[in-house]
Automatic annotation (TrEMBL):
Designated name of the protein: Dihydroorotate dehydrogenase (quinone)
Binding site for FMN: A66, G67, F68, D69, K70, T90, N142, N175, K216, T244, G266, G295, Y316, T317
Flavoprotein listed as a keyword: yes
Domain Dihydroorotate dehydrogenase catalytic, residue spans: 49-335
Residues binding substrate: K70, N115, R116, M117, G118, F119, N175, N180, N245, T246
Transmembrane segments: none
Compartment(s) of residence: Cell membrane; Membrane
Location of the active site: S178
EC number per UniProt: 1.3.5.2
Encoding gene (name): pyrD
Organism for this UniProt entry: Cochleicola gelatinilyticus
Keywords linked to the UniProt accession: Cell membrane, Flavoprotein, FMN, Membrane, Oxidoreductase, Pyrimidine biosynthesis
Length: 339
């Protein structure tokens, strides 16, 4: 029903407006008791789906990637669609509007999305306030820096977000790989990235009970840079990597909208994201968990990521194009694989 009826209707309108109206609709349906219907339709529960990763128990390995619920406004309702975990953010210390609109584009010919949102969010304190009422949704906190914070002061922004979210999220993701905040990707260089991650890890180790810290990386890194990432993970002893963020590459893109500035997600990213996962997994000798994200539109795509070395996976564009049935399809395929 989603792909045949709802998606063609929704795709007639501006994607950012559709995003906000969809949030309101889902919230309304849940408020009148339809969340249980969604759970019955899409959730799959099976012991074989559980994953114990970096000290956490995930009910299933299919998560919602950051960027969809930036401000932690809908994580409870979204979990009803069968996700094993929800990643909120990217949040920054101060609220910010993000980049000027129009900043979100569908590349329908490519089954892709192009965005240059620019970390638009209401600030970390607002998100933390909403997460205080969370009872049973496993939540990751994706953290970044404000646009106007210079890179040599960026560590302070990440520390602020880390401290504000510490008591209300289950794990952290350090986002230095978005292409839509000026100069942000420079923080992926070995020296500044090591300093940033080590600073957060030192704070983490002072806590009564530390939280897992992951690094989200770009798909556009070279093999030499990926080897640096492996060294940094080993040196700082963070808990894992999310591979990958959106790409700035336009290779193979058909849509005329590829001329727009921004990062692309969806099917064009599938192959490269899987390559990065496999490279990290093989070159590190499976030294750390990897969350695979990028171009997952079918259960087969998800299994491909897992076979390449991903322990968990995340959806974003595939969820928009394929609907919540994709989550059920992936978990069903994983159950069959285990039998």
């Amino acid at each position: 029903m989603y792909k045949e009826v709802l998606r063609p209707l929704l795709f007639q309108f501006d994607p950012e407006k559709v995003h906000h109206s969809t949030f309101k609709t889902i919230r309304f349906f849940s408020s009148i008791g339809l969340g249980g219907i969604f759970r019955n339709m899409y959730q799959k529960k099976h012991l074989s789906l559980e994953r114990n990763v970096f000290g956490l128990t995930f009910p299933n390995p299919v998560g919602l990637a950051a960027g969809f619920d930036k401000d932690a406004k809908l994580y409870k309702e979204l979990s009803d669609f069968g996700f094993g975990f929800i990643e909120i953010g990217t949040v920054t210390p101060k609220p910010q509007e993000g980049n000027p609109k129009k900043r979100l584009f569908r590349l329908q010919e490519d089954n892709a999305i192009l965005n240059r949102m620019g970390f638009n969010n209401g600030g970390v304190l607002e998100a933390a306030k909403r997460l205080k009422t969370n009872k049973n949704v496993l939540v990751g906190g994706n953290i970044g820096k404000n646009k106007n914070t210079p890179n040599d002061e960026a560590v302070n922004d990440y520390v602020i977000c880390f401290e504000a979210l510490f008591d209300v999220v289950d794990y952290f993701v350090v986002n230095v790989s978005s292409p839509n905040t000026p100069n942000l990707r420079e923080l992926q260089d070995k020296e500044p990235l090591t300093h940033l991650l080590q600073t957060l890890q030192n704070l983490n180790n002072e806590k009564v009970k530390r939280k897992p810290i992951l690094l989200k990386i770009a798909p556009d890194l070279t093999n030499e840079q990926l080897l640096d990432i492996i060294d940094i993970v080993s040196e700082t002893k963070i808990d894992g990597v999310i591979a990958t963020n959106t790409t700035i590459s336009r290779e193979g893109i058909i849509s005329e909208k590829k001329k727009e500035m921004g990062g692309i997600s969806g099917k064009p990213l599938r192959e490269r994201a899987t390559e990065v996962i496999r490279f990290l997994s093989e070159k590190s000798n499976n030294a750390f968990p990897i969350i695979g994200v990028g171009g997952i539109h079918t259960a087969k795509d998800a299994l491909e990521k897992i076979e390449a070395g991903a322990t968990l996976i995340q959806l974003y564009t595939g969820f928009i194009y394929e609907g919540p049935k994709l989550i059920k399809d992936i978990n069903t395929a994983l159950i069959r694989q285990s039998e």
